[in-house]
Specification:
Elements (H helix, E strand, L loop, with lengths): L1 H36 L2 E6 L5 E6 L5 E2 L6 E3 L37 H16 L3 H13 L2 E3 L5 E3 L5
Antiparallel strand pairs: 1-2, 3-4, 5-6
Length: about 160
């Protein structure tokens, strides 16, 4: 009889663990859906066929694809991928810093240029805890998180 009650208890405990695990998974899925619902995507395609997305927050402000800062009333790129030449507070100038014809630091790809510049922005902010925390929050808005070594990692399931 004692073995039977232990077996029932083990089954009950495993059921409780499974419920807890399912609740955690449901919460993560809900958070991902809320993240996606709060972002409006603005799709752009360059004349070379490169496709990228610019996000807007729930207030209608466009987010910088480099640092995630919400500071643009107009998108930094037009639908055809041409740049607005706006300058973000992180220092990135759309149409210059992403053009290999204008800037020696730019690459062939707009997105690759963003990634290179993002590393510079992280490097410039890593010495000040408050600046780094703000940057980390902003990067989260565009689907990035910072690893322990301050390398930006694209979050799975997001944009």
């Amino acid at each position: 009889m004692a073995n039977k009650s232990r077996s029932v208890y083990r089954g009950w405990a495993q059921g409780k663990q499974m419920q807890t695990l399912l609740r955690e998974i449901a919460k993560k899925i809900k958070n991902m859906l809320l993240y996606e619902a709060n972002k409006e995507e603005y799709h752009c395609v360059t004349n070379l066929g490169e496709h990228f997305i610019i996000l807007r927050n729930d207030k209608g402000t466009y987010l910088c694809p480099v640092c995630g800062s919400a500071e643009f009333d107009e998108p930094p790129y037009n639908k055809d991928g041409t740049a607005s030449f706006q300058i973000c507070s992180c220092g990135f100038e759309f149409g210059y810093d992403d053009s290999h014809l204008a800037s020696k630091d730019a690459t062939e790809s707009v997105i690759s240029s963003w990634n290179r510049w993002r590393l510079k922005v992280i490097d410039n902010n890593k010495r000040n805890k408050q600046s780094l925390e703000k940057l980390e929050h902003n990067l989260n808005q565009i689907g990035y998180k910072l690893a322990f070594d301050l390398i930006p990692i694209k979050k799975s399931g997001n944009i």
